[in-house]
Amino acid sequence: MRAGVPSCPNAKNQMLNFKPSGQVKKELGEHTLFGRVNVYTLQSLPEHIDLEYVIETVEERVPSIFFHDIDSIFIGYFKEFEERDVNAFYSDAALFITNDQTTDEDLLDDIVHETAHAVERMFPEYIYDHDLELEFVGKRKRLFQRLKSDHWDVDLDDFVQVGYSKDFDNLLYAEIGYPVLSAHTVDLFNSPYGATSIQEYWANGFEGFFLKSPNRIRGISPQIYNKITTLINKYK
Fold it and tell me: Measured between alpha carbons, how far is 155 from 158 in angstroms, rounded to an integer?
């Protein structure tokens, strides 16, 4: 999955005047999440994708508090996908998710992952504190050592930067590649994508907590586990 968080005003502006009538809503197959987050299918999903199942699964697994700052989910094609090489993003209280989905689980992953980026906007100082940064950088350093031992030409300076870098992204996924990263990160990150930046580390761990195993996240990313469980207990 390639996902993104930075605001994309073009996509949001595209939807500003989107106020569908009852008939249009029916044609779009509108659903709601938690009875208040409107889900619009702007371009059709593949016939084998069960959107109702995906929505029900999200409602069963993810507490509604984490959707507090989300008012809409738009499923379709947006030019930002190609411009930024992503298939989903969060912007201005809305999730934008590609309709090009292979399985129900892929759509579920995209929605929960981008919800994590909405949550980081709700609690930025709490989530991105010194403890999370130390945990993330420590994992990056271990990844660096493993790649170095595997004879990859890598620079430690690249691995201690916590923000997103296009060059570092290319190094991980274009040069080194997922198969190698998977072998070296299985005990460090929920998936190799979590190594991309501290923001993706959070979102990838959030996704793993709710869609895979909270206990696994507690083992490999205790800071993420602690932050999620604290928020759940505080707002339940």
Answer: 6
Last residue of a domain, one of 122, 149, 171: 122
The tokens of 114 are what? Answer: 């981008």
Read off the pTM. 0.88
Specify whether 131 is located in the same domain as 74: no
> Residue 100, exposed/middle/buried by CB under 10 A (0-12, 13-18, 19+)?
middle
Q: Which domain holds residue 44?
A: 3-122
- The model's pLDDT over 89-135, given as tens digits with 9 standing for 90+, comes to 999 999 999 999 999 999 999 999 999 999 999 999 999 999 999 99
> Tokens 């050592």 sit at which residue?
145
CB atoms closer than 10 angstroms to residue 123 = 12
- Whether the CB-CB separation of 15 and 71 falls below 8 Å is answered with no
